[in-house]
Amino acid sequence: MSRLRTLWPALALLLITLVPVWRCVFGGETIGAWDEVRALGPWNVQDSKPWDVLQADSVLEFYGWRDQVFNAWSRWHLPLWNHYELNGTPLLANSQSGALYPPHILVGLLQIPTGPGMALLAWGHLFWAGLGVYLLCRRLGGGVRPALLGASGFALSPFMVAWVTLPSVVETVAWIPWALLGVYMLPARPGLPLLAVSVAMSLLAGHLQFAAYGLMAVFCALAVRAAQSKLSWKPIVGLGLVGLVTGALISGPQLLPVLNHGRNSHRANVPTSEGYAAYNAGALPAWELLSFPDSRLLGLPTSDLEIKGVTLNGFWPGLVQRGGNFAESAVGVGPVILLLVVAGLRRRTLASSLGVGVAGLVGILLAVGTPFGALLYFYAPGWSATGSPGRAAVLFVLALCVFAGSADFEADPLPTKAARDRLLIFFGLVVLATGLLFRLPFAPWLPTLTAEDLMTAVPHSALAAGVLGLAFAVALLGVLAFRIPKLRVPCGLGLAAALAVFPGAFLVRSSPKRLTPITTTAGRVAIVNGGWDLLQTPPALLPPNSATLIEVHVPGHYQVHEVGGYDSIVDKRTRDTLAEIDGEDPAPPANGNMMFVKRHFDPVKLADAGVTEVWSADQLSGLGQPLPSSSGFYRYRLPGPGRGSMSSGSPTWMSETAEWVEYEATGPGVFTLRDHLRDGWSARIDDQLTDFTRDPWPQVQVPAGRHTIRFQCWPRGLTTGFQTLALGLAIIAIYMVSSRRSHSGLANPVVQ
To answer: Residues near 555 by Cβ (< 8 Å), separated by ≥ 6?
Structure first.
């Protein structure tokens, strides 16, 4: 019974965080906007929710990356290379693939199918994020029930849940509370290893921009802790810095190849005033912060919005700010958390959680585009290649939830008059924010819409009244829970239940994964597309990377290989090759990471890139008669050498894994592989290392006779990364052994 009394908050969190993903865990659905992709060609199934350009990435990027990583590990291969898009592109060195992230390795080795694996990972990371906040709040002096509510509020916040379909974000952010917990444990013995492991895991999880926000939070908390502590500041700062460095060392096998690949990225640039203006365009308009009572005040992306007969995404600020998206604007934590913040603030609470509060302040200053962001853009290496500074609002959301959970109403009950006054302040803030939000002068960037059009689309009094009604009901429950001891448990559970039915709990896009298979014998295909759209379903055929999802993994067969593709980091030389083929920028204006084959391509240059079939939604001239096809689009044979060719005779494709690609050929002659093999590749003939040239395509001299030719991948920085991993683990081991006698558990209080 005592163990159950200790574990019940964790068990409650486990159940609460199941709510957003239960359809995927138990209902057979797959995380991702599959309904959106099915609305495109060649499927054209009109069963989709409103178009959400960011959520479409869940299918067009993340599912394919996770699928390749899991399948590589299931075959005991390192997931080093993605053969299927962009004539080959790094997989490990694409940080968001999370190729070496331990939970991904576990899912792969257990051979859990990709869809269920992603669902379990989503559930696990929402729970892990909540558990980290719960333990952090308890460490800061919060009571069990406020800490549980703060943890539930963060795990089910619209910001977190809206990012579930883009899993590298949630998997990275889930470790930020644990890293902060490590800081607040210093200089106690578990602090350093917890900080180091949490930093390493956030870096390995893959979204380096959010990992950077986590590091900012750690630095803020570390600085405040050192300033507050009556102990010497040196042990806290010293151990904290060692923990940060150790975490970076542990992540070396993935981080170093990513950094090496990033030097040749199409996004690498020199900071300029024009670039900063474009970067800052992704900041949150200050008026969007008025949605803090509830993110529904900005509209939900899962609802329809009718304007002049056109159905659009219900998140109407996306019509005001080009590229605006609900997931990057969801700063509303809901009335439960706000009530706890207003009712729970004490001098002790502020002092104990000040470091987290400073991190939240830094986050919101970055998110709204203040000059503070300019310092990072111009002076932090690589920061100019990032985008959407509004994402830093995650630290603000985290800080509010930690503030909410750090009070202890049982040990420090709120006087009746103070409770009344604070409730009045709470309701005043909600009413003020709701009223101001619907009286703003909108200036839409779409020339076809006027401010009047937008205002008729914005949900007005009914939604505002609903939010205020919910806030009032929850506030009453909160007052009962805080003032009447016998009702604290049931009312606390009622507040947790209210969290579970918040709109954030139902924002995960999922549906059955139904894509009609398309088979081809072509070694590489080109799929002709033109534009992309931020607001409406684009008229696209098999948008980049979707072709790699429609082949079943069958031994002896390989998936569709594309000359185009979609990646967060594209090698500049790959982009240049496609620009030569297209005669123009291969990226559509709406997304600089998509590389299209556009309609006016050069067939000769396309064939030289190994393409043997061209797929198009419309008929193309100059390519002869289309091939017979029942796929719902036009397919053209493109004469050319194919992906692999010999100067004499025809090679035979043998196999490929995430580590290599292998052919057989009869020499003498020159074998050419039309893949973008950059640094870190070696060539072998019959297992013997041999020299090869790289430009314009990898070529190797084949001696007389029948031989096996294998190109093997080993990314630059990987060997050094394994050495830094060993060093990082050694530092933790030495520290744990040497500190066994000098530290005793969690004895040090946070604020003395």
So the answer is: none
Tens digit of pLDDT for each residue in 60-101?
Answer: 999 999 999 999 999 999 999 999 999 999 999 999 999 999
CB 179 within 8 A of CB 195: yes
On whether the CB atoms of residues 139 and 406 are closer than 8 A, the answer is no
SS (H, E, C) 406-440: CCCCCCCCCCHHHHHHHHHHHHHHHHHHHHHHCCC
Cβ contacts of 360 within 8 Å, gap of 6 or more: 395, 396, 397, 398, 399, 400
Please tell me the number of Cα atoms within 13 Å of 232 on its side-chain side: 4
Give the residue-averaged pLDDT of 531-538: 85
CA dihedral sign of residues 147, 149, 153, 156: positive
Please state whether the predicted TM-score (pTM) of the whole model is above 0.85.
yes
Any residues with CB less than 8 A from the CB of 630 and at least 6 apart, and which?
none
CA distance 333 to 724: 39
Average of pLDDT values for 693-713? Answer: 92
Reply yes or no on whether the pLDDT at 384 is more than 80.
Answer: no
- 536: how many CB neighbours lie within 10 A of its CB? 13
How much helix, strand and coil, in percent to the nearest 5, is found in the chain? 50, 10, 40
User: How far apart are the C-alpha atoms of 492 and 148, rounded to whole Å?
Assistant: 9
Cα torsion angle, 293, 296, 297, 298, sign:
positive
Tokens of 734: 């030495």
Asked whether 81 and 679 are in contact (CB, 8 A), the reply is: no
Dihedral angle at the C-alpha atoms of 29, 31, 33, 37, nearest 10 degrees?
-70
Which residue type, as a one-letter code, is found at position 632? G
Between 673 and 553, where is the model more confident? 673
Q: Token digits for 647?
A: 């100067």
Cα 25 to Cα 121: distance, rounded to the nearest angstrom:
10
| CB atoms inside a 10 Å sphere around CB 612 | 21
d(CA 240, CA 234): 10
Q: Is the CB of residue 386 less than 8 Å from the CB of residue 247?
A: no
Distances, alpha carbon 189 to alpha carbons 194, 219, 646, 737, in Å = 9, 19, 62, 10
